[in-house]
Amino acid sequence: MEETNIKILLAEDDENLGTLLREYLIAKGFKTDLFVNGELALVGFKKNKYDICIFDVMMPKMDGFTLAREIKKINNAMPYIFLTAKSLKEDVIEGFSIGADDYITKPFSMEELMFRIKAILRRMSTNNSSDTNETYQIGEYIFDSQKQILEHNKKQLKLTTKESELLKLLCNNKNNVLERNFALKTIWQEDSYFNARSMDVYITKLRKYLKDDSSIQILNIHGKGYKLIV
């Protein structure tokens, strides 16, 4: 995926920071639209096509969490990064539970933001490459890892990028232990506390998605990781 073709939606109510971020992203070759509150960002998202969303949590008129939920109703697979002045564990976990791809606490460096963006782009590129066009049978479910679709009884569920990546790792290790550290480094690039909690949230989501087939279990293997049993 060429970076020059990537379009970013940036929602940040701090005018100085927002302008600085937009100019930096444009200088790095990304087409970037800046919105100063959540409501304007949602209107902009509905009018234009974006590849990645970056938005502040604390914004007027519509906060970042609410904006994320509204955007997911339109495109459940849209990757996004939260920017926040808060470092409370509860806020981080809430962000990941909504489906955030990453979470950066202010103040942060431009280089850190670019690292997070490029990590998402690598995952997107991998998911779109031809050698990842794999379909898995999980009990009564069919999982298309390239299209990120989980199907059961002809009903399709569009998964987020991280949901799809985690389910694919579980499928590749079916009936064997998926090591926790391996999954964290493969999907999140590091095994930090917040990333580990995020993965727990995604495991809970996957269990919910697969609950209609009683023959399927995702077990916690204490001190090791997870096991998908079919």
Describe the structure.
The chain is an alpha/beta fold and 230 residues long. The protein is built from 8 helices and 12 strands. It folds into 2 domains: 3-128, 3-Layer(aba) Sandwich (Rossmann fold); 133-229, Orthogonal Bundle (Arc Repressor Mutant, subunit A). 43% of the residues lie in helices and 23% in strands. The chain has a 5-stranded parallel beta sheet with strand order 2-1-3-4-5, sandwiched between helices. Helix 2 runs parallel beside helix 3 (64-74) and helix 4 runs parallel beside helix 8. The protein is globular. The two termini are 35 Å apart.
In the CATH hierarchy, the architecture of the largest domain is 3-Layer(aba) Sandwich
Strand order of the largest sheet: 2-1-3-4-5
Radius of gyration: 18 Å
Strand content: 15-25%
> Biggest sheet, in brief?
5 strands, parallel
The helix/strand series, from N terminus to C terminus, equals EHEHEHEHEHEEEEHEHHEE
How many DSSP helices? 8
Uncertain stretches: none
How would you sum up the global shape? globular
Amount of helix: 40-55%
Structural class: alpha/beta
Q: How confident overall, as mean pLDDT?
A: 86
Query: What separation lies between the terminal Cα atoms?
Result: 35 Å
CATH first level of the largest domain: Alpha Beta
* CATH fold-level assignment of the largest domain: Rossmann fold
Number of domains: 2
